[in-house]
Amino acid sequence: MSRRRQDAAPRLVTKALPDPDHQRAAEARYARDETAPHPAAQADAMGATVLAYLITGPLLFGGLGWLVDQWLGTAFLVALGAVCGMALSLYTIWLRYGTSQAPTPARGESALPGAEPQNEENQ
To answer: What are the start and end residues of every segment in region (Disordered) (predicted)?
Structure first.
């Protein structure tokens, strides 16, 4: 370890002042639109919508399968309708909420803006 020389004056170390452009960019980044819903409310609405899709799909298509079973006199279309309804529900959820990633730009191009989420709760 090195010691400070006795004749050297103590140094005053301070934090550098932020660059004004950097400060404005940080303020704009973390600014919140007061007219928009709170992020927790948006997350709750999205969760309720996803849950509604997961319940409605199998019920609707299972019910349609039951009606067709009654009409044709079969017994397998209820299960087939429920499975297809769940598959369509998951596909719909993936389309609406799972594809909001920005595409990767080709080499030499500028950065692409992020895709907008496709749900009515955030619009």
So the answer is: 1-39, 102-123
Residue 6 is given by DSSP the state T
Amino acid at 118: Q
- Coil vs helix vs strand at 20: helix
Query: Is 100:115 a contact under the CB 8 Å cutoff?
Result: yes
| Size (the chain), residues | 123
Q: Residue 104 CB: number of other CB atoms within 10 A?
A: 9
CB 101 within 8 A of CB 117: no
Q: What is the pTM of this model?
A: 0.54
Structural domain boundaries of the chain? Answer: 58-97
Q: How far is CA 1 from the centre of its chain?
A: 51
CA distance 11 to 5: 12
pLDDT in tens, 106-116: 555 555 455 55
Residue 96 region by backbone torsions, left for phi larger than 0, else alpha for psi between -120 and 50, else beta? alpha
CA gap 121, 123 in Å, rounded? 6
